[in-house]
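Shipment paperwork, digital attachment
Item: protein structure file
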Amino acid sequence: MEQMLEDLKKIESVARDQFAQVKSQEALNELRVQYLGKKGELTAILKGMGKLSAEDRPKVGQIANEIREALEKVIAEKDAALQMEALKAQIEGEKIDVTLSGAKIESGHFHPLTRIIDEIKDIFLGMGYEIGEGPEIENDYNNFEGLNLPKDHPARDMQDSFYITEDILLRTHTSPMQVRTMAAKVPDYPVKVICPGRVFRRDDDATHSPMFHQIEGLVIDENISMADLKGTLLKVIRQLFGEDREIRLRPSYFPFTEPSTEVDISCGICGGKGCRTCSDTGWIEILGAGMVHPNVLEMAGYDSTKLRGFAFGMGVERIAMLKYGIDDLRVFYDNDIRFLDEF
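Attachment content:
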Protein backbone atom coordinates (compact mmCIF):
# COMPACT_ATOMS: atom_id res chain seq x y z
CA MET A 1 0.00 0.00 0.00
CA GLU A 2 2.81 2.37 0.85
CA GLN A 3 4.35 1.97 -2.59
CA MET A 4 1.00 2.62 -4.26
CA LEU A 5 0.46 5.81 -2.25
CA GLU A 6 3.94 6.97 -3.12
CA ASP A 7 3.25 6.32 -6.84
CA LEU A 8 0.00 8.29 -6.64
CA LYS A 9 1.69 11.32 -5.06
CA LYS A 10 4.46 11.17 -7.63
CA ILE A 11 1.90 11.12 -10.49
CA GLU A 12 0.14 14.14 -8.95
CA SER A 13 3.39 16.11 -8.58
CA VAL A 14 4.63 15.39 -12.12
CA ALA A 15 1.17 16.02 -13.66
CA ARG A 16 0.85 19.40 -11.93
CA ASP A 17 4.24 20.50 -13.30
CA GLN A 18 3.34 19.39 -16.84
CA PHE A 19 -0.11 21.02 -16.74
CA ALA A 20 1.48 24.28 -15.58
CA GLN A 21 3.86 24.32 -18.56
CA VAL A 22 1.35 23.37 -21.29
CA LYS A 23 0.87 26.06 -24.01
CA SER A 24 -2.11 24.90 -26.08
CA GLN A 25 -5.53 23.32 -25.84
CA GLU A 26 -4.34 20.33 -27.88
CA ALA A 27 -1.39 19.65 -25.53
CA LEU A 28 -3.66 20.05 -22.49
CA ASN A 29 -6.07 17.46 -23.85
CA GLU A 30 -3.25 15.03 -24.56
CA LEU A 31 -2.01 15.30 -20.96
CA ARG A 32 -5.54 14.85 -19.63
CA VAL A 33 -5.82 11.57 -21.54
CA GLN A 34 -2.29 10.56 -20.43
CA TYR A 35 -3.15 10.86 -16.75
CA LEU A 36 -6.95 10.54 -16.43
CA GLY A 37 -7.96 8.55 -19.50
CA LYS A 38 -9.12 4.93 -19.50
CA LYS A 39 -5.55 3.85 -20.16
CA GLY A 40 -3.98 6.70 -18.21
CA GLU A 41 -1.34 6.47 -15.48
CA LEU A 42 -3.77 7.12 -12.61
CA THR A 43 -6.17 4.51 -13.92
CA ALA A 44 -3.37 1.97 -14.29
CA ILE A 45 -2.44 2.30 -10.59
CA LEU A 46 -6.05 2.00 -9.50
CA LYS A 47 -6.37 -1.26 -11.41
CA GLY A 48 -3.78 -2.74 -9.01
CA MET A 49 -5.95 -2.06 -5.97
CA GLY A 50 -7.26 -5.61 -6.16
CA LYS A 51 -4.01 -6.81 -4.64
CA LEU A 52 -4.56 -4.72 -1.53
CA SER A 53 -6.23 -5.90 1.60
CA ALA A 54 -9.85 -5.04 2.34
CA GLU A 55 -8.70 -2.52 4.97
CA ASP A 56 -6.22 -0.68 2.66
CA ARG A 57 -8.43 -0.42 -0.42
CA PRO A 58 -10.77 2.34 0.95
CA LYS A 59 -7.79 4.42 2.09
CA VAL A 60 -6.01 4.19 -1.25
CA GLY A 61 -9.29 4.73 -3.15
CA GLN A 62 -10.04 7.90 -1.18
CA ILE A 63 -6.57 9.35 -1.84
CA ALA A 64 -6.80 8.39 -5.57
CA ASN A 65 -10.17 10.16 -5.90
CA GLU A 66 -8.80 13.26 -4.18
CA ILE A 67 -5.85 13.32 -6.58
CA ARG A 68 -8.22 12.88 -9.60
CA GLU A 69 -10.42 15.73 -8.42
CA ALA A 70 -7.40 17.95 -7.83
CA LEU A 71 -5.99 17.25 -11.30
CA GLU A 72 -9.41 17.86 -12.93
CA LYS A 73 -9.54 21.23 -11.15
CA VAL A 74 -6.04 22.08 -12.42
CA ILE A 75 -7.07 21.07 -15.95
CA ALA A 76 -10.22 23.27 -15.79
CA GLU A 77 -8.26 26.28 -14.55
CA LYS A 78 -5.59 25.81 -17.22
CA ASP A 79 -8.25 25.41 -19.92
CA ALA A 80 -9.90 28.69 -18.89
CA ALA A 81 -6.51 30.45 -18.88
CA LEU A 82 -5.66 29.15 -22.35
CA GLN A 83 -9.07 30.28 -23.70
CA MET A 84 -8.53 33.75 -22.25
CA GLU A 85 -5.07 33.96 -23.83
CA ALA A 86 -6.52 32.89 -27.19
CA LEU A 87 -9.25 35.54 -26.92
CA LYS A 88 -6.71 38.26 -26.09
CA ALA A 89 -4.61 37.22 -29.07
CA GLN A 90 -7.64 37.34 -31.34
CA ILE A 91 -8.65 40.78 -30.08
CA GLU A 92 -5.11 42.02 -30.48
CA GLY A 93 -4.93 40.70 -34.02
CA GLU A 94 -8.31 42.11 -35.09
CA LYS A 95 -8.17 45.55 -33.51
CA ILE A 96 -8.70 48.57 -35.75
CA ASP A 97 -5.91 51.05 -36.14
CA VAL A 98 -7.83 54.30 -35.79
CA THR A 99 -4.82 56.28 -36.98
CA LEU A 100 -5.32 54.97 -40.52
CA SER A 101 -7.47 57.01 -42.86
CA GLY A 102 -10.80 55.28 -43.53
CA ALA A 103 -12.17 54.17 -46.87
CA LYS A 104 -14.18 56.91 -48.57
CA ILE A 105 -17.91 56.25 -48.66
CA GLU A 106 -19.56 57.81 -51.68
CA SER A 107 -22.79 59.62 -50.86
CA GLY A 108 -25.68 59.14 -53.24
CA HIS A 109 -28.00 61.82 -54.61
CA PHE A 110 -31.26 62.14 -56.45
CA HIS A 111 -31.46 61.72 -60.21
CA PRO A 112 -32.13 65.09 -61.92
CA LEU A 113 -35.56 63.91 -63.07
CA THR A 114 -36.48 62.91 -59.53
CA ARG A 115 -35.34 66.32 -58.32
CA ILE A 116 -37.58 68.08 -60.85
CA ILE A 117 -40.59 65.91 -60.02
CA ASP A 118 -40.16 66.53 -56.29
CA GLU A 119 -39.74 70.26 -56.87
CA ILE A 120 -42.94 70.43 -58.94
CA LYS A 121 -44.81 68.37 -56.34
CA ASP A 122 -43.75 70.78 -53.60
CA ILE A 123 -44.96 73.77 -55.63
CA PHE A 124 -48.40 72.31 -56.25
CA LEU A 125 -48.79 70.94 -52.72
CA GLY A 126 -48.21 74.50 -51.55
CA MET A 127 -51.08 75.58 -53.81
CA GLY A 128 -53.49 73.04 -52.27
CA TYR A 129 -53.29 70.32 -54.92
CA GLU A 130 -53.46 66.60 -54.24
CA ILE A 131 -51.00 64.06 -55.71
CA GLY A 132 -52.58 61.26 -57.73
CA GLU A 133 -50.95 58.12 -59.11
CA GLY A 134 -52.29 55.51 -61.49
CA PRO A 135 -51.35 52.41 -63.47
CA GLU A 136 -48.92 52.53 -66.38
CA ILE A 137 -50.91 49.83 -68.21
CA GLU A 138 -54.25 51.35 -69.22
CA ASN A 139 -57.39 50.42 -71.07
CA ASP A 140 -58.38 52.17 -74.28
CA TYR A 141 -61.28 54.02 -72.68
CA ASN A 142 -59.22 55.78 -70.01
CA ASN A 143 -56.34 56.52 -72.36
CA PHE A 144 -58.43 57.78 -75.31
CA GLU A 145 -62.23 57.50 -75.34
CA GLY A 146 -62.85 59.07 -71.92
CA LEU A 147 -60.73 62.00 -73.12
CA ASN A 148 -62.91 62.71 -76.16
CA LEU A 149 -60.83 60.51 -78.49
CA PRO A 150 -63.15 57.82 -79.95
CA LYS A 151 -61.62 54.86 -81.78
CA ASP A 152 -61.82 56.45 -85.24
CA HIS A 153 -60.52 59.88 -84.15
CA PRO A 154 -57.58 61.02 -86.33
CA ALA A 155 -55.88 62.70 -83.35
CA ARG A 156 -54.90 59.23 -82.10
CA ASP A 157 -52.21 59.29 -84.78
CA MET A 158 -50.44 61.96 -82.70
CA GLN A 159 -49.53 59.27 -80.17
CA ASP A 160 -47.77 56.19 -81.58
CA SER A 161 -48.73 53.67 -78.93
CA PHE A 162 -47.54 50.34 -77.50
CA TYR A 163 -50.60 48.08 -77.59
CA ILE A 164 -50.71 44.85 -75.58
CA THR A 165 -54.16 43.80 -76.81
CA GLU A 166 -56.77 45.68 -78.84
CA ASP A 167 -58.03 47.26 -75.64
CA ILE A 168 -54.94 47.35 -73.38
CA LEU A 169 -51.87 49.52 -73.95
CA LEU A 170 -49.03 51.28 -72.15
CA ARG A 171 -50.43 54.70 -71.36
CA THR A 172 -49.26 57.35 -73.82
CA HIS A 173 -49.77 60.27 -71.40
CA THR A 174 -50.76 60.84 -67.78
CA SER A 175 -54.13 62.23 -68.94
CA PRO A 176 -55.94 58.94 -68.12
CA MET A 177 -55.61 60.09 -64.53
CA GLN A 178 -58.11 62.84 -65.39
CA VAL A 179 -60.66 60.14 -66.17
CA ARG A 180 -59.78 58.09 -63.08
CA THR A 181 -59.76 61.11 -60.76
CA MET A 182 -63.13 62.40 -61.97
CA ALA A 183 -64.67 58.91 -61.73
CA ALA A 184 -63.46 58.66 -58.12
CA LYS A 185 -64.66 62.14 -57.07
CA VAL A 186 -67.88 62.77 -59.03
CA PRO A 187 -70.15 64.50 -58.07
CA ASP A 188 -67.86 66.17 -55.52
CA TYR A 189 -65.86 69.29 -56.35
CA PRO A 190 -63.64 71.26 -56.36
CA VAL A 191 -61.01 68.95 -57.84
CA LYS A 192 -57.34 69.99 -57.69
CA VAL A 193 -54.85 67.26 -58.50
CA ILE A 194 -51.55 66.66 -60.25
CA CYS A 195 -50.54 63.22 -61.47
CA PRO A 196 -46.83 62.50 -62.13
CA GLY A 197 -45.70 59.28 -63.77
CA ARG A 198 -44.06 57.43 -66.62
CA VAL A 199 -45.61 57.28 -70.08
CA PHE A 200 -44.69 55.39 -73.25
CA ARG A 201 -44.62 56.16 -76.97
CA ARG A 202 -42.72 54.70 -79.92
CA ASP A 203 -40.27 57.60 -80.28
CA ASP A 204 -36.51 57.58 -79.93
CA ASP A 205 -34.17 60.45 -80.84
CA ALA A 206 -32.34 63.37 -79.20
CA THR A 207 -35.62 64.96 -78.06
CA HIS A 208 -37.86 61.87 -77.69
CA SER A 209 -37.67 58.65 -75.69
CA PRO A 210 -39.85 55.49 -75.73
CA MET A 211 -40.33 56.04 -72.00
CA PHE A 212 -40.50 59.47 -70.41
CA HIS A 213 -42.22 61.33 -67.56
CA GLN A 214 -45.19 63.66 -67.50
CA ILE A 215 -47.09 65.58 -64.86
CA GLU A 216 -50.80 66.03 -65.51
CA GLY A 217 -52.82 68.72 -63.75
CA LEU A 218 -56.60 68.97 -63.39
CA VAL A 219 -58.83 71.58 -61.73
CA ILE A 220 -62.66 71.48 -61.71
CA ASP A 221 -64.83 74.04 -59.95
CA GLU A 222 -67.37 76.77 -60.55
CA ASN A 223 -66.31 79.91 -62.44
CA ILE A 224 -62.95 78.53 -63.62
CA SER A 225 -61.49 80.49 -66.54
CA MET A 226 -58.40 80.75 -68.73
CA ALA A 227 -57.21 83.47 -66.37
CA ASP A 228 -56.99 80.88 -63.57
CA LEU A 229 -55.02 78.57 -65.85
CA LYS A 230 -52.57 81.30 -66.88
CA GLY A 231 -52.09 82.54 -63.32
CA THR A 232 -51.40 79.01 -62.06
CA LEU A 233 -48.87 78.22 -64.80
CA LEU A 234 -47.14 81.60 -64.42
CA LYS A 235 -46.67 80.98 -60.69
CA VAL A 236 -45.27 77.49 -61.31
CA ILE A 237 -42.92 78.62 -64.09
CA ARG A 238 -41.53 81.47 -62.00
CA GLN A 239 -40.88 79.18 -59.04
CA LEU A 240 -39.10 76.73 -61.32
CA PHE A 241 -37.09 79.13 -63.48
CA GLY A 242 -37.04 82.50 -61.71
CA GLU A 243 -39.31 85.46 -61.05
CA ASP A 244 -38.18 87.24 -64.22
CA ARG A 245 -39.73 84.65 -66.53
CA GLU A 246 -42.88 85.29 -68.56
CA ILE A 247 -45.24 82.88 -70.33
CA ARG A 248 -47.13 83.13 -73.60
CA LEU A 249 -50.25 81.20 -74.60
CA ARG A 250 -50.62 80.17 -78.25
CA PRO A 251 -53.80 78.65 -79.70
CA SER A 252 -53.44 74.91 -80.29
CA TYR A 253 -55.53 71.73 -80.46
CA PHE A 254 -56.03 68.90 -77.99
CA PRO A 255 -59.12 66.68 -78.19
CA PHE A 256 -59.73 66.82 -74.43
CA THR A 257 -59.52 70.62 -73.99
CA GLU A 258 -61.40 73.51 -75.63
CA PRO A 259 -59.96 76.04 -76.06
CA SER A 260 -56.47 74.57 -76.09
CA THR A 261 -53.13 76.29 -75.85
CA GLU A 262 -49.41 75.70 -76.13
CA VAL A 263 -47.53 77.43 -73.34
CA ASP A 264 -44.19 79.10 -74.08
CA ILE A 265 -41.67 80.41 -71.59
CA SER A 266 -39.44 83.42 -72.20
CA CYS A 267 -35.92 82.33 -73.11
CA GLY A 268 -33.54 82.43 -70.16
CA ILE A 269 -30.47 82.66 -72.38
CA CYS A 270 -31.29 85.89 -74.16
CA GLY A 271 -33.94 87.26 -71.84
CA GLY A 272 -36.56 87.14 -74.60
CA LYS A 273 -34.51 89.11 -77.14
CA GLY A 274 -33.91 86.18 -79.47
CA CYS A 275 -30.99 83.75 -79.78
CA ARG A 276 -30.05 80.41 -81.29
CA THR A 277 -31.57 78.51 -78.36
CA CYS A 278 -35.02 80.00 -78.91
CA SER A 279 -34.68 80.18 -82.72
CA ASP A 280 -34.54 83.99 -82.47
CA THR A 281 -38.13 84.15 -81.20
CA GLY A 282 -37.46 84.89 -77.55
CA TRP A 283 -39.80 82.03 -76.55
CA ILE A 284 -39.43 78.28 -75.87
CA GLU A 285 -42.36 75.85 -75.90
CA ILE A 286 -42.71 74.09 -72.54
CA LEU A 287 -46.16 72.46 -72.10
CA GLY A 288 -49.72 72.09 -73.35
CA ALA A 289 -52.91 73.11 -71.56
CA GLY A 290 -56.49 74.22 -71.99
CA MET A 291 -60.01 74.32 -70.58
CA VAL A 292 -61.46 70.85 -69.98
CA HIS A 293 -63.69 69.90 -72.91
CA PRO A 294 -67.41 69.78 -71.95
CA ASN A 295 -67.61 66.26 -73.41
CA VAL A 296 -64.94 65.06 -70.98
CA LEU A 297 -66.84 66.56 -68.05
CA GLU A 298 -70.13 65.04 -69.18
CA MET A 299 -68.64 61.55 -69.74
CA ALA A 300 -67.25 61.69 -66.20
CA GLY A 301 -70.66 62.60 -64.78
CA TYR A 302 -70.17 66.33 -64.14
CA ASP A 303 -72.63 69.01 -65.27
CA SER A 304 -70.71 71.03 -67.88
CA THR A 305 -73.27 73.86 -67.68
CA LYS A 306 -72.44 74.41 -64.02
CA LEU A 307 -68.77 73.44 -63.72
CA ARG A 308 -65.69 74.20 -65.73
CA GLY A 309 -62.08 73.20 -65.38
CA PHE A 310 -58.62 73.43 -66.79
CA ALA A 311 -55.96 70.83 -67.45
CA PHE A 312 -52.29 70.86 -68.37
CA GLY A 313 -49.59 68.35 -69.12
CA MET A 314 -45.86 68.97 -68.81
CA GLY A 315 -42.96 66.78 -69.80
CA VAL A 316 -40.53 66.42 -66.90
CA GLU A 317 -37.56 65.78 -69.20
CA ARG A 318 -38.41 68.91 -71.19
CA ILE A 319 -38.41 71.03 -68.04
CA ALA A 320 -35.16 69.45 -66.80
CA MET A 321 -33.47 70.11 -70.16
CA LEU A 322 -34.46 73.77 -70.03
CA LYS A 323 -33.61 74.21 -66.35
CA TYR A 324 -30.19 72.54 -66.56
CA GLY A 325 -29.23 73.44 -70.13
CA ILE A 326 -29.21 69.84 -71.45
CA ASP A 327 -29.49 69.41 -75.22
CA ASP A 328 -29.96 65.62 -75.51
CA LEU A 329 -32.80 63.79 -73.77
CA ARG A 330 -30.98 60.44 -73.89
CA VAL A 331 -28.35 61.41 -71.31
CA PHE A 332 -30.99 61.04 -68.58
CA TYR A 333 -31.06 57.29 -69.23
CA ASP A 334 -27.45 56.51 -70.18
CA ASN A 335 -26.44 55.97 -66.52
CA ASP A 336 -23.21 57.87 -67.15
CA ILE A 337 -21.89 58.64 -63.67
CA ARG A 338 -20.00 61.66 -65.00
CA PHE A 339 -23.28 63.26 -66.07
CA LEU A 340 -25.19 62.27 -62.92
CA ASP A 341 -22.42 63.57 -60.64
CA GLU A 342 -23.08 67.07 -61.94
CA PHE A 343 -26.31 67.04 -59.94
